Amino acid sequence: MSEDRDTAKRRALEEAGAYLEGLIDFEKRESYARSKFSLAAIRALLDRMGAPESGLSVLHVAGSKGKGSTALFAESLLRATGLRTGVFTSPHLERWTERFRIDGEEVAPERLADAVARLRPHVEALRFAGGDTVPTFFDATTATALALFRDAGVDHVVLEVGLGGRLDSTNAVSPAVCCITSIELEHTEILGDDLAAIAGEKAGILKPGVPAVCGALAPEALAVVERRAAELGCPLTRLGVELDVRVQGDLLEGARVAIRDGDFDVRGALATLGEHQAANAALAVAAVRRLLGDTISDTEMRSRFAEGLATARLPGRVEVISREPWVIVDAAHTAASARALASVLARIAQPVDFVLSVSSGKDIATILAALLPHARSLTLTRAEPVRSLDPAEVAAAARAARPDLEMRVVPNPHLALRAAQEAQGPDAALCATGSVYLAGIARRVLREPAGDRVAVTRTRP
């Protein structure tokens, strides 16, 4: 009987996932007009659902990089203070259910399937009506998350922006605090072709009078955010000005950080590697402080926050699978994230066997420039059949940069990871990186026993 119930739950969850994936998903389309982006659909959907966002205390997090890490740090800080949390992030690494978290755990399958079942009639009604209120995949998942968090009665919600900010589905909420982690050239065909334009899109999450926190931005991007904050009367806290973080201690054991936010300070140890995560931790501290207000004393907050920093886990972000030998999975897919990964690899001070898959539209040259100086070998693969570049194209660029490098092309990502794992010796680190898609697959493959061995022959180009 129990097995029948489990089978029914699994089937319901699979059906819910298939339904959501069947919606128009702007995140996965190759091309679309910027003008098609609008908040009309998500607002119409939320209205039909009884405004599940109403009354939620929301921390809204945007940024080119670091927003997912900042969201998870914020979740850990809130939970350390004894508060109930709802967290919505994207994309996922292994399962689409990862996007919905309540109290630090993925939402139970039956609860999520039920939420999608209740959402479906509203989506279908709007699809039938047509026009500019037809919900997308991200509209539907955002609405599902908000309904789940309302029903669970969480104390605070952390919402990660999917793309941009101003016209992102998550921007239909009225947040209590806003955070912009970083601004880089990204999705230029949608967000604009310079930092100022992209900053304008990110700053679109700011709301009148709502406190905001931002990372250390380039001058042209910071000027846009500062101007928008001033227009809206948003108290703005800037990393490197009102907010400061210093890194101390052994970074290979997790950085020790000292964070100062005005007259408040906290010291703690991070469980994750990478000096760049110190900035994300500081942004989370400042944002959560403003979310909590005076509901907790500085003394207790300092203690709770130290605990929250130490217990935060960031899957797929310089994630250490093994230390003997070193095995690391990282979703780095931009120049900045590749450089952050490279700084960790430099501290490990071992040659690195890379497994690499790069998504289309990414700057191959800058990613390779950061990683190849540390490489002993390179295995090129294709983690996602549509969105990932042909590994032969990446291999050609790598050969041009490092003609001496051992290299192979293994299109199947599972085989590529197993091959690299099998070939790894005790004197080298293994690192799977280049895209979220590969990071998700690598977390599954590299955490499991190797099983049947894959015969590998090293060749030089």
Provide tags for this entry.
UDP-N-acetylmuramoyl-L-alanine:D-glutamate ligase; 15 helices; 461 residues; disordered C terminus; 16% strand; alpha/beta; single chain
Explain the overall architecture:
The chain is of the alpha/beta class. It has helices spanning 2-21, 40-48, 67-80, 109-129, 137-152, 188-191, 195-202, 219-232, 276-292, 298-311, 335-348, 364-371, 391-401, 413-423, 436-447; strands at residues 58-62, 85-88, 100-102, 105-106, 156-160, 177-180, 212-214, 236-238, 243-248, 256-261, 264-269, 319-323, 326-329, 352-356, 375-380, 406-409, 429-433. An 8-stranded mixed sheet has the order 4-3-2-5-1-6-7-8, with helices on both faces. A 6-stranded mixed sheet has the order 12-13-17-14-15-16, sandwiched between helices. α2 (40-48) packs parallel to α5, α7 (195-202) packs parallel to α8 and α12 packs across α13 (391-401). It is globular and about 60 Å long.
Secondary-structure-based class equals alpha/beta
Overall structural domain count: 2
Helical fraction: 40-55%
- What value does the Rg take, in angstroms? 22 Å
Strand elements, count: 17
Distance between the termini: 58 Å
What would the principal axes of the Cα set say about the shape? globular
**The named CATH superfamily of the largest domain:** Mur-like, catalytic domain
Summarize the structure.
With 461 residues, the protein is of the alpha/beta class.
Can you lay out the helices and strands and say which pair or pack?
Elements: H1 2-21, H2 40-48, E1 58-62, H3 67-80, E2 85-88, E3 100-102, E4 105-106, H4 109-129, H5 137-152, E5 156-160, E6 177-180, H6 188-191, H7 195-202, E7 212-214, H8 219-232, E8 236-238, E9 243-248, E10 256-261, E11 264-269, H9 276-292, H10 298-311, E12 319-323, E13 326-329, H11 335-348, E14 352-356, H12 364-371, E15 375-380, H13 391-401, E16 406-409, H14 413-423, E17 429-433, H15 436-447
Parallel strand pairs: 1-5, 1-6, 2-5, 6-7, 7-8, 13-17, 14-15, 14-17, 15-16
Antiparallel strand pairs: 2-3, 3-4, 9-10, 10-11, 12-13
